[in-house]
Each structure stands twice: as C-alpha cells, then as structure tokens.
Amino acid sequence: MSEQTPLHAVERLRQHLHPIADLAAAAALLAWDQETYMPPDGAEGRANQLATLARLIHQRFVSAETKQVLEAAEGAAGAFDPDSDEAGLLRITRRDFDKITKLPTEFVAERARARAISTQVWREARPKNDFVTFRPHLEAMVDFARREAEYLGYTDHPYDALLDNYEPGMTAKDVRTLFARLREVTVPFVRAIAQRGPVVDAAFLSQDYDEAGQERFGLDVAQAFGYDLRRGRLDRSPHPFASGFGQKDVRITTRYNRQDPMSAIFGIFHEAGHAMYEQGVSPALERTPLSRGTSLGVHESQSRMWENLVGRSRSFWSHYLPRLQQVFPQQLRGIDVQTFYRAVNIVRPELIRVEADEVTYNLHIMLRFDLELALLEGTVTAADLPAAWNAKMQEYLGIVPPDDRDGVMQDIHWSGGSIGYFPTYTLGNVISVQLFDAAVRANPSIPGEIGGGEFGTLLGWLREHVHRHGRKFFAKDLITRATGAELSPESYLAYLQQKFGEIYGLGVPAAAGTR
Amino acid sequence: MSEQTPLHAVERLRQHLHPIADLAAAAALLAWDQETYMPPDGAEGRANQLATLARLIHQRFVSAETKQVLEAAEGAAGAFDPDSDEAGLLRITRRDFDKITKLPTEFVAERARARAISTQVWREARPKNDFVTFRPHLEAMVDFARREAEYLGYTDHPYDALLDNYEPGMTAKDVRTLFARLREVTVPFVRAIAQRGPVVDAAFLSQDYDEAGQERFGLDVAQAFGYDLRRGRLDRSPHPFASGFGQKDVRITTRYNRQDPMSAIFGIFHEAGHAMYEQGVSPALERTPLSRGTSLGVHESQSRMWENLVGRSRSFWSHYLPRLQQVFPQQLRGIDVQTFYRAVNIVRPELIRVEADEVTYNLHIMLRFDLELALLEGTVTAADLPAAWNAKMQEYLGIVPPDDRDGVMQDIHWSGGSIGYFPTYTLGNVISVQLFDAAVRANPSIPGEIGGGEFGTLLGWLREHVHRHGRKFFAKDLITRATGAELSPESYLAYLQQKFGEIYGLGVPAAAGTR
C-alpha cells in the first residue's frame, strides 16, 4: 500500500491533531483545577499558564502545517462515506480551521489570561456581593466578545458570530423565533399555575440534610444511570459543571446546601448527563477535535434529560424515594411518592436559574439573551447590568433579587467571557424531549424500566444515536437522524403542559398525548 | 536607553523562558492531579498529555532561539554582580541548557509517557502486593535511567550523571564517603539503643484517632510554621509529596492512618517544610528556571528541619501537646510532655522509610543507594529486586518485610523513573542540622521561641539565607554562604547522639554540646 492512500492522508491529519488535543486537555484540566482546588493566590500564575497554552494551541492549529495536512486529506475526501469518522474529521477540522484562523493568536492568548483572572475575581467578589470590583473585568469580557464577533464576521447581528461558537449554525433570529413560541405558551401557563396556588407542602425538603448523604445518594443514582467512576469523579465548585479531558476522564462538580438537598442531587444528575455524553464518544475519535459534544444545545439535552425527564419523573421516584428515605429516614418519614413528586416539581419564580423549575427555567434564559444582545449592541453597559437585570427579573418572573450575588453575579459564564452561550440551555430543554420521545418510540419499555431503576435501554439508545458520534454530525443533522424530524419546540411544550397540567390540575390539552 | 543594554539582553532571555516555565507548571499540575484526583482510567490520556508537554518543553528549551538569546545575554554577563538575579539566571540557564541538549527530544517525550503509565501501574499494583504486574514498568524505568546516564555522560560511574539531576555536582563517591561516616557512628548507636530497651510505652499513639482531627491539627501547626494557605493546600495521595507551580501555588499531600496519627501529622510538617521553601522564593525569579529549590538535598533539609528539629523537639511539644490534647482529649488524657516526646522519638527498625525514626532513617537510604548502584551496574535486575531488597533490609535493619507492598514497592520514586534521588534525603538530614545550628547561632532566641509556639525568627532566617535565592546559588555555595562552613556530617551526628543519647540514657559525648 502506498504512502499516498486516502487513509494515510487522514491518519497524518489525525496524528497532527493529537498533540493539539493533548494541549487542549491540559488547558481544560488547569481550568477544572481553578474551579475546584486551586488556592486563591494561584490565579495570576494560572492565567499565565492558560495564556501560554492558548497561544500554543492556536499557533499550532492555524499553522501552515495544519493547512497542508488538512488540504492533503481533503484531496482524498472522495474516498470516504460522508457518515464515516474520516469524513467527519475533515468536515469539522475544516470548519474549525476556517473559523479559528480569523482570530489573531495574541487576541486568543490575552483573552485566555483575562478570562482566568476575571473568573477568579468573580469567585471572590460574588460571596461578598461586590459587583464594583467585578465590573471592570466584566467590561473587558464584553469588549473581548465584541472584538471576537468582528474578527469572526457576521451578516445579521454580532451575536450570531458568538452563538455559532456554542451552537454551530444557529442565529439570534432563530433564537428569537424559538423564544417567542415558548413565551407564547409559557407565560399564560405560569400565570394559570400561580392562580391555582400550591398543591403540596414541601417544607420537609427544607430540613437539615447532611452533605455526605446528598453526595452518596446522588452518586449512587449517577452510577445507576451509567456514569462510570473509573473514568470520572465528583468534586465541589462554586458553580456546578462537567469537564472532560478525553472520554476516559470526564468529571463533574456540584455544590451543597444542607437546607436544600435536591439542589445538589439534581445537580449531580444534570452534570452526570453531560459527563455520560462525553464518556460515550467513540474511542476512535479520541485525541481529535471530534471527541466532545457536537453543540452545547445537544450537550444540555443530555443533562436535562437525566435531570428532568428521568430524575423529576414520578416513575423514577417510585423506585428511588424508598432509597432516599434510607439515607434520610428522619427527614422523609411518611412522605409518599405523590407528595415527593409534587414537591420536586413546584412551579414558582425563583432567583437562581440553576434551581428553577422546568416551566419558569426558560424565562431566566430569555432574560440573559436580552441582556447579551443589549450588551453587544451597546444599549446596556456592564455598569448598567445590575439594574437592567433586576428590571428584567421583574418583567419575566415578577421578583427582584435582594442583591447582586443572587442577581447579575449568580452565573459564572459572563465572568469567563462566555457570551452567546445561554440560549443553548433552552435549546437543550427542547432537544431533550424530542430525543426522549424518539427513544421511547423505539423502545416503549423505557418508562417502565425507569420505574424499576433500570436505565440501560435509554442510555444504549443515546449512546447509539447521540453520544458515540461526538462532533461528527452538526446538531441539526444529528437531531434529524436520531428523531426523524427537524428540531421543533412542540413536543417539548406538550410535555410541559401534560406534566404540569396534571400536577396542578389544569386540564391537559388534547393534543399533548400521554406520557 | 538602547535595546542592547545588558539588562535588555537578560530581560529578553527571561521573556523567552517564561512560556517554558508556564508549560512546566502545567505539566507539574497534571502530575499532581494524577497523584491526587485523576480517575484511574485517565492514566493513558494523561500519559499522552504529559508526553506532549515534555516534548514541547524540551523542544523549546533546546531550540536555536534559546541558544541565541542565552549567548546574547552571556555577552553582557560582565555587567552583573555574580550574586545578582541576572548572573544567577545566566549561570543556571547555561547549566540546564548544556545538560538538557544532550537528551534527544523523543527520549524525553517517550520517557514522560512511560513514567505516567508506570506510576499508575504502581499505584494500582502496590495495594494488591502485585510486583509481577509492576515489574516490566520498573525494568523500563531502569532502562531509561541507564540510557539517560549514557546520553548525559560521566567520568566515574553512570550514577553520577543521574545524581547530578537532583544534587548538582555531587557524585556517587561523595555519597559513599558520607554514608561510610554516618554508618560508622549510626550502626553501633542503634545497637546501643536496642540493648538499652524501650524507655516509654507508646501504646496510646495506637488508638483510634479520626482523620479530621489529624488534618486540622497538622494544618494548624503548618500555618503557624508559616505555610500560607492562600498559596497552598493539603490533599491526600498514596505517597505524600509537595508540588509547586510557581511560588504562589505550592501544595502538599499526606495520607492518614487512624491507628497512627503521628504519621500524617509529621507528614504534614515535613511537606509544609518543602512548600515553605518554594513559597519563599523571590517573586523576581517567578516564571524562570530559578523559581524552585536549588537541590533536593537543600529541599529535604527544609522538610526535615520542620518535621524533626522543630516538630520532634521537646520544646515544640511543651507548647503543642496541650493543643493536640484538645483535639484528642480521650486518647491523650494524662499524657505528659516527657512521655509524648519519648513516644514520638522511639528508635526502632521499621519497614517503611517515611515512618522511620531519625536514627535508623539513613539506613533505609543506604539500602536504596546500594540497590540503585547495582541496578545501573547490571548486577541486580528488576526481577531480582524483591529478594535483594529483603536481604538488604536484613543486613541494615535486621527485619524483613512480609510482602512487597511494604518492601520494594513502598516508594513511588522508582515507578516514576527517579533513580539517583534517594541519597538527597540523607543529605537533607545532614544539611538541616548545619543550617539550624547557624540559625540558632545568629538568633539564640530560636529554641525558646519554638517552646512558645513562635517560629517567625527561624522562618525569617531561612527565607533570608535559603528560600529567597531559589536556584540562584548551587547547594554547595548556598550552604557555605549560609553557615560559614562547608557541608559536613559532624554537627548532624552530634545532634543525633545528643538527642537520642539523652532519651535513651546513653551518656552524651562531651563534644556534642548542648541544644
């Protein structure tokens, strides 16, 4: 066999990309450490290390050598099935190369340094409710975002350039259309629920629950879902997240509140959903740009599926409530499944996004999307943000945070320069139901299995149709392949109305079907 | 001012070295993570990441650009006082450059990969007492060591080339001379102590002590010594160590044994001693090759000083025993200072080096030195090591381990390819006393302050005479500058005879003086 076969050309590209993937994994571990264990004064050194790694990764990826091996491999592209790993590698590497070459290396390195400092400032300023100290860093992050949009280019709105980093191909216009439809159904639905009034007394969930018990139960369930602890682990961080360094090391974090055990427990379910996605990527894609989730929307669909469609379902708790009662016998004595199910599904406007119920959750996202657009357009500045945040909270949720800690400073994202990221959370909610419905259509046994504490069929379907592909297919194509239909919010809306209509006795729209 | 001033030339060198130091810090963090938190199946990916980083660091450091900026700066060397940071940077960078350029990049990268795998195999094999699985990795490590010695070159013995990595300028012949003198005094001394028999019943230290209390007390003392937790932290690992990523992030680990609380507590004192050294390096040396300890012997002198000269002294416990009794009131009820002091200074041959008393400790090192020489000479192979280990234990300590877990597999060093490292531990013991004596001569108040729980004068002297210099001076020069005398084992031997002669009622040699 000659050195010039198509497979050799792709293999050469793959070998060229391996050390870049290694450096990216190293940078990701440094970022993970910064959120979990790094001592506070390490931030400056860490910023230097991350800037150096970002510079090297960028230099190597936009190098003439990448161009040359990529073009050589593309010359052989005709030999590969479009669904093959090889075709996927060419498709995604080309996309990334064309995009990333538009950014100057020094911009990338300087931004990496500034992000590391900024998140550290946020980490220390938030508990002190100190927006003033954080503000200049936030301003810098907005400035980096605007410059990035200019470098990347866009036809309609600078937001499109940023959103494309997280959800390739999606635009602000798409988000607006989606959000308008969601708002149309959600806003009156939330109002009807509020008028109906409480249907359960959830005070039993506000007693003292020790952290060790929360952790043990959460991890037991995550392992039952399929999260592999030989390739993962759970730590603590101020803002929960999942982070992977190849499919054999994918970690999650959570935070604990002794007076609100379900926050950590659902948080673990959520992050385990993210982690199982990356653990499920085909080993053949390891050490390439394909070895992670295809978009943040699809990523979030996995976390929300395990957190909500599985973890907040009645059938799940019919199996797991007795187990949770073994961990917390005093606190949960005499609580039945129906009461518990209603208690973990209370719909009520809350200050904190990550603790919001499924119905009001998207309103938190809409607020952030509005503010991000305004920041990029310059109609709101970083200095205006606390007031703008509170006004939007009043508008969307009818409540106003008492301070910036639980208001504009609650999320880590902006501190790290992640602007254009938030809409993918709502998109994840929508995709989660569309995928779950497809999995159940293919395997009608799934809901019954969840009631028996069995999750293998669902995970198997996700592995086959979503996880193993990594970034090989764009989200749009992945969803069509997996579900037989284009992305649509209708099954998600039907799910919300069915589930919460039943809980709140509001009557279920005929079209929603049963679940 | 022209671009060509001497300061500009050195500054250019420094700027060139910064990203290399950043990459080295990243690699050190990846290694720290591997020992502390990495999930087991992450080892293969980690090995790739460490190999890629090792390759990049080596390529950059031995590059034509390094040569050029180094030579340009050396051309300006006449402008600098030999004691200046600038002269130190030139001296050490030249030494490192000449040495490291002798190693092929691929050798360095492959070794980094093999080391990461090998330590992981050791980590899993040791608890299972599974030498057979570990053996081929150990063989590979010995092979890397022999090849490294050949690449580096040596006049007398291949060991010299390796020892020079850890203790620049020292040779196997120097070690032999030192060890012969130590053996001459120690062996009859250990025999006399054994004949004297026990002077204390230490059973009270074998009760159940919870880990949280051990950790709290250990960290409280470490902070009182001067270990700064805004720039450090304590974690757990199978083998305790200290690891720095710049002087603002220097971490330590320990391991806990509920039936032997002093193991973790003295372990924390020890590692805090290492960490304070690196925290004390001048900030002006940050992100250069000078920003760590000058040699492992001097490093170990710091850990052993805080562990033994301070932490195992009677005056220390006269202050801290009541505090430890507050943490463990049941277990330590009625124990007086004299009893406690004797109990933590029992001289008795033990299997585990890191838990050995001060008198027998060096015998563990001599054993390892003998075996390392034999491995390099080829008179002992990796397969022979368990038996050779046990024979040496019988020879030096009169006891034989029941298994390889507590025998040949007890230390992490060989699994990571660190051959030539062990003698620096004994050297550290020797240097610790020479430095401590000099500190006390300059500040006679130090022993009294230790009895009052005050350590600032001692730490201040170490900061001034040892820590701040980093690698600026070679160990030999540093010791002469700090103590006014060349390195000698005599004050160390006098210390041992004085302290343990008093404890065991053996009579103190007249020349030993008082402490």
Question: What does the secondary structure layout of this molecule look like, with pairings?
Answer:
The structure is a homodimer of 515-residue chains.
Chain A (H helix, E strand, L loop, with lengths): L5 H31 L6 H19 L2 H12 L9 H16 L4 H21 L5 H22 L5 H9 L5 H25 L14 H15 L8 E3 L5 E3 L5 E5 L6 H19 L16 H15 L3 H14 L9 H7 L17 H17 L7 H13 L25 H20 L3 H6 L4 H10 L9 H9 L6 H14 L12
Question: Which fold name is given in CATH as the topology of the largest domain in chain A?
Answer: Neurolysin, domain 3
Strand percent estimate of chain A: under 5%
Q: CATH top level of the largest domain in chain A?
A: Mainly Alpha
Question: Can you summarize the main beta sheet of chain A?
Answer: 3 strands, mixed
Query: Strand order of the main beta sheet of chain A, please?
Result: 1-3-2
For the largest interface in this structure, which chains are involved and how many residues does each contribute?
A: A-B, 40 and 40 residues
Q: What is the helical fraction of chain A, as a range of percent? A: 55-70%
* Uncertain residue ranges of chain A: 510-515
Q: What is the N-to-C succession of helices and strands of chain A?
A: HHHHHHHHHEEEHHHHHHHHHHH
- Oligomeric nature of the chains: homodimer
Question: Any idea how many domains of chain A?
Answer: 2
DSSP strand tally of chain A: 3
Structural class of the helix and strand makeup of chain A?
mainly alpha
Instruction: Count the DSSP helices of chain A.
Output: 20
Distance between the termini of chain A: 56 Å
Q: Please, what is the average pLDDT of chain A? A: 96
Question: Which radius of gyration of chain A do the C-alpha atoms yield?
Answer: 23 Å
From the spread of the alpha carbons, the general shape of chain A counts as: globular
